[in-house]
Amino acid sequence: MTSSTARALLCLAAFCLAAVNAAGQGQSAPRDPRQPARQPAPVGTATVGGSVTIAVSGQPARGTRVTLSANDIGLSRSTDTDALGRFAFVALPAGRYNLHANKPGHVSASYGQTRPGRPGTPIQLADGQRFDARLQIYKGGVLTGTVLDEHGEAAPNTQVRVLRYMTQGGHRTLQSTASGSTDDRGIYRVFNLQPGDYVVCATPPRNAASQTDARLREIDGLRQRVAALARTDEAAARELAARADSLQAETAEEEQQTGYAPVYYPGTTSSAEAGTIALGVGEEKPGLDFQFQRVPVARVEGLAVNPTGQPLQNIQFSLVNAAGSLPGVDSNSTRAGGEGRFRFSNVAPGQYTLIAQGTLNPPPGPPPPNTAQPRAPAPRAEPLRFWAMTTVSVDGRDLSNVVLTLQPGMTVAGRVLFEGTTQQPPADFSRIRVSLSPMDVSSGVARALTSSASGRVDASGRFTIAGVLPGKYRLTASGGGAGWFLEGSTIDGQNTLDFPAEVKPGQSVTGAVVTFIDRQAELSGTVTTGRGQPAPDYTVVVYPADSRYWVSNSMRIRTTRPATDGRFVFTGLPPGEYRLAPIVDAEPGSWYDPAFLQQLDAGAVRVQIGDGEKKVQSLRISTGGA
Questions:
Q1: Facing residues of 407 across strands?
Q2: 145 to each of 14, 528, 550, how far by Cα in Å?
Q3: What is the CATH number of domain 141-204+261-294?
Q4: What is the pLDDT of residues 321-346, one digit of tens each?
Q5: Are 79 and 88 in contact (CB under 8 A)?
Q6: Where exactly are the structural domains of the chain?
Q7: What is the pTM of this model?
Q8: In angstroms, rounded to a whole number, what is the distance separating the alpha carbons of residues 71 and 129?
Q9: Measuring CA to CA, which residue among 126, 143, 114 is closest to residue 55?
Q10: Residue 278 forms beta bridges with which residues?
Q11: d(CA 439, CA 266)
């Protein structure tokens, strides 16, 4: 038997094994007749097979989880590679597929990606096609070191956070990526990291603070019971009051006057002075040691009051470091105790923003009329949100009786319009849901304060979103029905899909307009080499010619990877003049940077897209060009 024949038989055996596994996985328990029947998975005659290897060593990546998915036809399958790193998916319908591989201790891989963390290339399958896919999976990077206390001794059970610089909306920001804990020697080891630039932070232990806060909650509960028993059982009330006084005295004696602040490698308590650690593919960076510093700490306590007198639920307090807040590091949070009181312990010196948020359940609507006809239940009203914010300065001395006066969130009200040329608007507007999404979370205050809000549309197309907190938002809507597409949303005449609208304290919004249309523009084409072959290794960027729209998360700036046949498609672009350019190995999100787009402008292809137009514009890569 020749070696080529043996290889062919091995591949055929792998394909058959995958088919048997898929058939076995299809067996299930008898269906509950009360549940709707599940649609059968689509099948076809195409096949995707191949192998996964470990990068650098070239060894087979046995036991790797491989997932093949096609969102447009609702298909997803998974399998594990065999001892030789092989996998196979059979009986596939024609479609556009994405292929991913995951293995513990390694960075996930996508077929066709140029390096870890980059997007992959979709696989375009035709009926009966057999596609051979080879993937390389890289060992994850490692950051490791030792955390010591102020005496130079090991700091066990200390949480260590790893943050990676990422480009979001054209801005370079730090995002929390992974975390770990130190062992009994104070050693931490955070693994499975993508290549990139990192910051490492050790969070001080809060056991003492947690115990103090638990005791204070116990004291608060005792005082409430004292007030309840004052008129009915004076002896029990006196006993409970004595217990509360005793716990209060013990707590005052035990509270620390100094404590730890978060510390960043190589040993600073300021996030602005944190060192940047460059980590290569599969690299291990040892010796990242740093030491806690003891600083004066204080309590910040007080209460939140609601001038309306209505009881609020779930009052949440956040204390955000104004000097430079990092996700999950430089902010504390707690919930209200009795009578809306809050307390933060072991607060390091600095300038802070104190934020309070609470909700109020609206009263139920009027009962339905007494008729014989059954009525659908009315949609439940969204809880109303209240908020307050102030600044506090901490210098090692306790801050008591800080009062936050809560105020109701603002409202955004408007109407939904349908502008159709071939379709009629939906008969039931109540299925439409409008939403506000925060668009500026670059600061710690914005992350702690802004949050999504939504509302429903009435029969006349009117909507009101209540309880909106201050911030910048994008107004969107869903549920318009088949064949209808969101065209835009305006507040004060400005399309929030292009430029987020700012909701300011005490200023509600009226006159917002959300517009659906029954036509959608499409820009498609192929990317080919000078010889006419598909060039799927490129990323295609489309962006507006008008630089006013070169803003973070613009709806007019899109990217996509061509499939293996070189074809790409963009849908839903607003009409206007655009630029189209192929790029190689760009960092995700960098295309929102105006400087990056400016570099592309000279070599980009000019494209004019009309309202609802289906435009075809192909790209040819010149030899050696990018």
A1: 387
A2: 44, 48, 42
A3: 2.60.40.1120
A4: 877 666 656 567 888 876 788 888 87
A5: yes
A6: 10-22+41-139, 141-204+261-294, 300-363+381-406, 409-517, 522-620
A7: 0.76
A8: 19
A9: 114
A10: 197
A11: 33
> What is 75-109 written as a DSSP string?
EEEEEE--TTSEEEEEEEPSEEEEEEEE-TTEE-E
Q: What Cα–Cα distance (Å) separates residue 531 from each residue in 288, 524, 617? A: 50, 20, 18
DSSP β-bridge partners for residue 485: 517
In sequence order, what are the residues at sequence separation of 6 or more whose Cβ sits closer than 8 angstroms to the Cβ of residue 592? Answer: 167, 169, 170, 171, 550, 551, 552, 553, 554, 557
CA-CA distance, 496 to 4, in Å (whole number)?
A: 60
Same fold yes or no, 10-22+41-139 and 300-363+381-406: yes
Task: Name every residue whose Cβ is closer than 8 Å to that of residue 481 and which is 6 or more positions away in sequence.
Answer: 426, 431
Pair type for strands 331-335 and 313-321: antiparallel
203: amino acid identity, one letter: T
User: What gap in Å lies between CA 414 and CA 416, rounded to an integer?
Assistant: 7
Bridge partners, 316 (sequence order): 335, 357
One CATH from 2.40.50.100, 3.40.50.1460, 1.10.3720.10, 2.60.40.1120 for 300-363+381-406: 2.60.40.1120
> What is the β-pairing status of strands 471-478 and 433-438?
antiparallel
What would the pLDDT profile of 544-556 be if each residue is shown by its tens digit? Answer: 999 999 988 889 9
